[in-house]
Amino acid sequence: MTETIHITIENQHGEINQLEIPDGINLSLMEVLKASEYDILATCGGMALCATCHIQVLEGMDALEPLSDAELDMLDTLPDANDQSRLACQIRLNPSLDGLKIRVFGNN
């Protein structure tokens, strides 16, 4: 039986949507957001080199892996980053993320 990961996403306009992602797809949150047509540039392709997939974690931060040095370095370059900021490219989807709530900033 495949579990489903439910993620709540607030976009830059304040609209809230639910994503249901099947467990085991082996993608990053950035890849799922791009495939779901969210305004995520992800210029570097998920290498933690550009910070254009910056998100804010509203609920579920404790379920995420700790920040890597590369991710922390990129977040330090963002004027609007805070303690809830993460790079979506560095978040691998797994069942422990069920119930995650995030805000995407968009790049327009």
Provide a descriptive summary of the structure in words.
It is built from 2 helices and 5 strands, in the order ββαβαββ. Strand 1 and strand 2 form a beta hairpin. The chain has a single domain, classed as Ubiquitin-like (UB roll) (Roll), CATH 3.10.20. The N and C termini lie far apart (40 Å). Strands 2-1-5-3-4 form a 5-stranded mixed beta sheet. By secondary structure, it is of the alpha+beta class.
Helical fraction equals 10-25%
Strands, total number: 5
Q: Work out the strand percent.
A: 25-35%
Question: What's the story with the biggest beta sheet?
Answer: 5 strands, mixed
Structural class call reads alpha+beta
Q: What is the correct CATH architecture?
A: Roll
Q: N-to-C terminal Cα separation, in Å?
A: 40 Å
Strand order of the largest sheet: 2-1-5-3-4
Low-pLDDT segments: none
Relevant CATH superfamily: Beta-grasp domain
How many helices in DSSP terms? 2
Mean pLDDT: 93
Say what the CATH topology is.
Ubiquitin-like (UB roll)
Level-1 CATH class name: Alpha Beta
Order of helices and strands: EEHEHEE
Global geometry:
globular
CA radius of gyration: 13 Å
Tally of discrete structural domains: 1
Protein name: Ferredoxin
GO molecular function: 2 iron, 2 sulfur cluster binding; electron transfer activity; metal ion binding
InterPro entries: 2Fe-2S_ferredoxin-like_sf (IPR036010), 2Fe-2S_ferredoxin-type (IPR001041), Adrenodoxin-like (IPR001055), Beta-grasp_dom_sf (IPR012675)
Cofactor: [2Fe-2S] cluster
